[in-house]
Design goal:
Blueprint: H1 2-5, H2 12-19, H3 29-135, H4 139-154, H5 163-192, H6 196-213, H7 215-239, H8 249-267, H9 277-301, H10 311-332, H11 335-338, H12 340-343, H13 365-373
Helix pairs in contact: 3-4, 3-5, 4-6, 5-6, 6-7, 7-9, 8-9, 10-13
């Protein structure tokens, strides 16, 4: 019976109907009542025990809660103390890091200062040495030292607000200009006095200085050399109507071939191979000759006597010109042209001799066509 009574789905009516299902079972009422009273007493005892146990548990829980509160009260100050120490440690580390950064910056600035002072000392020494070498015309040593001076001077661009650096920078620039003028003067005097053979070595070393001075200096010397070598040609063939006529076109090309031979025999050793001086000379000759021919041909078609341009002479001159251009292409289109990409600067363009002179004849080829039609 106790198991039935403890069921969660217990229904006393159903239970009573089961116990007293027949009138004959009424005789067991006393027994059933006794069993119920006994079960009730057991429940009372069980409930009383549970109440006592719960009361004791509540006391322990209260004690535990109080102990936990006491522990928390002790823990909070400790946590606050740890937090405070952590903040102090963080501040100390921040200060130490800032000190380390300051030391690093100081070390870096000191290193930069020492490097700058060392370079300044080297620049000052090199500048003084360069002045001495320049005055004694020791151009080979000048070229090497000049490159070093220019490289060192580049490190002081940001320091030019300092008076001493500004003065030194101006002195270096002045010395560069003096070297440029000195080398140009040496070339001019040497060629004017016809002392090339005796001073070829000095002039060759002077070209190294011009290389160190840069593209503008090198271009100035190349232009001067071309103009100097072609001065006689211009005087002869422009100043004399007969010599400059189409009849004497072969003399022009013969003159330049002699000039190239003179260059190969006497002047080539003076100039660095990457300057391609002979090509520059040939290009200047072609440009001047082309302009001469344009003027001569224009005068020929405007002759006052009414005579037309000689077709045979025109074709003969054109053929000689084409042959001359071909010879220049053949000479300069092999070894020297192969080295252009590696030796010349990007701003320089290799001369192209095809139609360098014959371009002047193109507007007048119609004369030949008209003659053929006749």
């Amino acid at each position: 019976m106790p198991a039935v009574l403890r069921s969660a789905e217990y229904n006393p009516i159903d239970h009573l109907n089961t116990i007293f299902a027949h009138p004959s079972t009424l005789s067991s009422i006393a027994k059933t009542s006794y069993a119920l009273d006994k079960y009730q007493d057991e429940l009372d005892v069980e409930i009383a025990g549970l109440v006592r146990h719960q009361s004791a548990s509540d006391v322990e829980s209260i004690k535990s809660i109080r102990a936990a509160k006491d522990d928390l009260a002790e823990l909070f100050p400790k946590v606050e103390d740890v937090r405070s120490r952590a903040m102090q440690t963080e501040e100390a580390i921040t200060e130490m890091t800032a000190d380390i950064k300051r030391l690093d910056n100081t070390k870096r600035n000191l290193t930069l200062s020492m490097t700058a002072l060392k370079r300044l000392q080297m620049l000052t020494t090199a500048y003084e040495q360069l002045r001495g070498l320049s005055s004694s015309r020791q151009y080979k040593e000048c070229a090497q030292l000049l490159q070093a001076v220019i490289q060192l001077m580049a490190h002081f661009k940001s320091y030019r607000s300092i008076d001493q650096i500004a003065i030194l920078s101006r002195n270096v620039s002045d010395l560069q200009r003096e070297l440029l003028e000195q080398v140009c003067e040496d070339f001019e005097l040497t060629f004017a006095k016809a002392e090339v053979a005796q001073r070829r070595g000095v002039l060759a070393e002077a070209c190294l200085v011009m290389d160190a001075l840069g593209d503008n200096a090198r271009s100035r010397l190349i232009t001067w050399y071309c103009n100097t070598q072609l001065r006689e040609y211009r005087q002869v063939f422009r100043g004399n109507e007969e010599a400059g006529s189409l009849d004497n076109i072969s003399r022009r090309y013969a003159w330049f071939r002699r000039m190239l031979k003179t260059y190969d025999d006497e002047h080539a050793v003076m100039f660095p191979a990457n300057w391609r001086m002979n090509e520059m000379l040939a290009n200047a000759f072609c440009e001047g000759t082309r302009e001469d021919f344009k003027g001569i041909l224009l005068k020929s078609v405007r002759r006052a006597d009414g005579l037309s341009l000689d077709v045979d002479l025109l074709l003969s001159c054109l053929q000689e010109t084409l042959d001359f251009e071909h010879s220049l292409e053949k000479r300069f289109n092999n070894a020297s042209r192969a080295s252009i990409d590696t030796l010349s600067s990007d701003s320089e363009k290799a001369p192209v001799f095809s139609q360098a002179i014959s371009e002047a004849f193109e507007p007048y080829l119609s004369v030949w066509v008209e003659a053929q039609d006749k």
